[in-house]
Each structure stands twice: as C-alpha cells, then as structure tokens.
Write a structure and sequence with these properties.
alpha+beta; seven-stranded mixed beta sheet; binds coenzyme A; Aminopeptidase; two-stranded antiparallel sheet; 6 helices
Length: 189
Amino acid sequence: MPPFQLRPISETDVDALVALDSDPEVMRFINGGQPTPRDLCANVLIPRMLAAATRPGLGFFAVESPDQTFMGWVHLRLDTFEPAWAELGYRLARPWWGQGVATAASRLLTQRAFDELGFDVVSARAMPENGASRRVMEKVGLREAGRFVFPGRVLAGLTVPEVPGVLYTLRREDWSARQGDADAVSLSG
Ligand SMILES: CC(C)(COP(=O)(O)OP(=O)(O)OC[C@H]1O[C@@H](n2cnc3c(N)ncnc32)[C@H](O)[C@@H]1OP(=O)(O)O)[C@@H](O)C(=O)NCCC(=O)NCCS
C-alpha cells in the first residue's frame, strides 16, 4: 500500500477537490458521474466539510502522499441520520484505487471513533451498486444493517435525484472483538 497521511481539509484544497470530482468514474456512485462546479465546491461543499469538524478528531481529511500529492479525502463526521453515530466516508482519485488506502484510512478513523472519541457505533452509507465502497466497509468490519433512501436535492443548479442506499454499521463491542482477533493473529504470527 502506498504511504499516506491525513490532514484536515482546508479552503486551499478547492482545485484538488474540483479535479477529483471531474472524473465521472469517481462520481459514478455519488451522483451518476456529474462533475462538481468550482463555485459549488468553494461556496457550498468546502464550508460544509469544514463545518463537519464539530469536535477535534471529526471532519473531512485530505489523504496525501508523503510528498503532499492530494490522493483524495476521507471523513469521520456525525452521522447525517443518526447523530449519535460517527459516519465514515471516502473518495479517492482513480490512480490510488485498489491499493488498500481507503480501508487503511477508514480503520484509522474507526479506531479514533471508538478509542479516542467514545462513539458506540460507526456507520457508512453507499449506493447498493457501489461494490468497492461496500467492500471497504466489510474489510473494516462494518456489516449491512438496512436499506434507506438518500433524499433528492438540488445544489446550486445541480440536481441529485432520490436514490436507494445501503447502511452499514459496526458496534464498539464488535470492533473490540475484531481487535482481539487481530492481536491474536499478530502474536501467533
Ligand atoms: C470506494 C473507494 C474510496 C475505495 O478506495 P480504495 O482505496 O480503492 O479501496 P481499497 O483498495 O481499500 O479496497 C477496495 C476493495 O474493493 C474491491 N472492489 C473494487 N471494485 C469492486 C467492485 N466493483 N465490486 C466489489 N468489490 C470491488 C477491491 O478488490 C478491494 O477489495 P479486496 O482488498 O478484497 O480485493 C474508491 O473506489 C473511490 O474513491 N471510489 C469513488 C468514490 C466513491 O464511490 N466513494 C464512496 C461513496 S459511498
């Protein structure tokens, strides 16, 4: 896996975020492949990303290579539907796909949610057809917990229709049990 580091997203990331969202494959299971206009990114999305940092440890984080190349972002934020939960999310540029980066970053954020921030449940949501996203959730230890509907919305002229979604969750006790297993494996290895 390529090495990476996380740092809070900032207003200066606008060009990198617009470039990320300009790849229709990246946006395929977000909004059907539409790019994000720069104005929308700068004036609506980045302020929302910054507002998700409701306490230290939460928010949107740029994923960067050691030479500070922008690889994408991950988030740990209050769950949109269940604010007592911490919700994971991720979006990476295509050259970085398939190398374990989203899984590793999500594990770091999950550990933070349970061990440092005291959440009892970590959640994630995706369109049912988003196999890669669901596989990341599974590898981190989340399990399918139900279906729901992403509400439709219009953002600065961009229409995002109502679409079905799948919810995954992981409870603290199940995470702890998995960590026990991981310790046992590494001790025996
Ligand atoms: C989802 C995303 C972040 C995954 O990032 P990543 O760093 O490639 O993920 P990882 O390499 O850690 O793991 C991906 C897993 O999904 C698997 N996978 C890839 N495409 C898949 C598909 N279509 N169906 C099922 N599994 C798939 C990979 O084989 C891998 O599993 P494995 O390790 O068992 O082989 C990346 O694909 C992405 O940015 N997609 C566009 C944005 C997006 O859809 N974000 C999620 C919105 S809910």
